[in-house]
Amino acid sequence: MNIYIDHEFHYETENLVRLFFPNEKLTVIQGIPENKGENDIISSVKDGEIYTEFSGTSESCHFDDTDTKTVERKTAVCLYKVLVRVTGRKQPWGILTGVRPIKLFRRLSESGGKDYAGDYFLNELLVSEEKTSLSAVTEGYEKKILALSKPRSFSLYISIPFCPSRCSYCSFVSQSIEKAQKLIEPYLELLCREIEYTAEIARQCELQLESVYIGGGTPTTLNAGQLEKLIDTVNRSFDMKTCREFTVEAGRPDTIDSEKLTAILKGGADRISINPQTLNDRVLEVIGRKHSSEQTINAYKLARKVGFEHINMDLIAGLPTDTVESFRDTLDRICELSPESITVHTLAMKRSSRLTQEGNFLDTDKEVPAAKMLRYCEKKLSEEGYHPYYLYRQTRMEGNLENVGWSKEGYDGIYNVFVMDETHTILGCGAGAVSKLKKPMSEELSRIFNYKYPYEYINGFEEMLKRKEQVKVFYDEMAEYLSKICL
Q: What does the alpha-carbon distance between residue 127 and residue 400 come to, in Å, rounded to a whole number?
């Protein structure tokens, strides 16, 4: 499908069309042809007029405001209306294609109030009433967490890029244990060195640690001794007195045992994530999760027995072969366990995942099953005393939906909010980790990338440490600015 444009909004136009035609190959071409094909889209901005044409349907509007953002939004609205008429499908998030709608809602609220933000979402961005309401509630809970962050705050992310096996939907940098077993010990040795080095830089920059998140991959692919060594390195290296939350992602129930859980809890981690994704054994088999629903429940009970008081559980709506009824059964059974927080993801068909490479496509029905699943989540979890505390979106999601973190009162996952809002600096350690250096009270963000794969990380370790010196340079250059805003 060709998209012909005569304006500068290439990226937004392509992404908006992709929401309606996620499985099509799209080509954006600058300039309007004299003769267009039946499936070609025309998007024009000229002399105060916006014009869109596609498949015999057209839409136009006049604009007086020359503000680029306003013209871009109106161009998107014009295109959206045509696409809705041609396909018969509305998008739950309207013309929004970004991953952080709550951040936008907050910005609008700060400039004009919450009613203004809601009205703007509904009428200017064409977001549905359901998602606008969800945004308003979520933003209220996020705001309380964001207020905890100070100009010198930072959070620490540690990557363990190993898994028992690779799930069919996964696009993360992780390697199965069968292929990478020999890399684990040398990787861990260097990772501990990087953590120590990063902590020294944080001290020199007078940064204050707010949260720690050990993720991956599956951190509990490490044995108990390795986990103890890793967590001990964190505790020895950083000033943990200011740390509000310490999470270890024990994503795969088949990697959990009493010894590992005890090592994590004794190390001071107060939040653990046990991720079933589904409690339908047939669906687990289809997606390549080599564990049963019974193992998930047993792992949860074991974590309680060991002493964990904050357990998060992840679910995915829209998994292959899963049904609305099966998903409801999963959620009902999870609610019976009563974890402190539940994160509900929508399946995202990433290009590097096995699902996509095997030729699976995104559903383009008017209402995909995942939408009904999320609607049930909102109803059920609200009734069970959970509230939405963070939300984000990804590209190529089923139904153009969202991921939502739900929690009971007092159990919001603060790292999740900090990282998704880009509130403060995140210092990343390990393969695939990205350090994000945030200038306080601004939208300025600098990134430092670690090597992506474990073997690259090991081979290029000394070079990678040199990159971390950019953290000190960043804060040295910002010293005067920080001294003023910290008064």
A: 12
pTM over 0.90: yes
- Nearest-angstrom CA–CA distance, 380 and 264: 31
pLDDT per position as a tens digit, 285-315 = 998 888 899 999 999 999 999 999 999 999 9
Spell out a b/e string for 173-198, using b for 16 or more CB atoms within 10 Å of the CB, else e: bbbeeeebeebbeebbebbbebbebb
SS3 per-residue string spanning 165-189: CCCCCCCCCCEEHHHHHHHHHHHHH
Structural domains of the chain in order of their starting residue, each with its CATH number: 2-87 (no CATH), 101-134 (no CATH), 145-473 (3.80.30.20)
pLDDT of residue 434: 97
User: In this structure, are residues 274 and 302 in contact, taking their beta carbons and an 8 Å threshold?
Assistant: no
Sheet containing strand 425-429, strands side by side? 387-392, 403-407, 341-346, 311-317, 271-273, 245-249, 208-216, 153-160, 425-429, 434-438, 445-449
Q: 355 falls in which pLDDT band (50, 70, 90)?
A: low
The two three-digit tokens of residue 245, written as one number: 């939350």
For residue 353, give the nearest of 398, 293, 392, 404 by alpha carbon: 398
**pLDDT above 80 (res 166):** no
d(CA 129, CA 122): 7
Rounded distance between C-alpha atoms, residue 172 and residue 167, angstroms: 10
Residue 269's Cα: distance from chain center in Å? 22
Contact 272, 281 (CB under 8 A): no
Those residues whose C-beta lies under 8 Å from the C-beta of residue 248, and which sit 6 or more positions away, are: 214, 219, 220, 227, 231, 264, 269, 271, 272, 273
Question: Going by C-beta distance under 8 Å and a sequence separation of 6 or more, which residues neighbour residue 324?
Answer: 369, 372, 373, 376
Q: Is the confidence at residue 175, as pLDDT, over 60?
A: no
d(CA 51, CA 62): 9
Paired tokens of 415: 């790292």
pLDDT, tens only, 360-406:
666 667 789 999 999 999 999 999 999 999 999 998 899 999 999 99
Q: Are 328 and 285 in contact (CB under 8 A)?
A: no
At 360 the pLDDT is 64
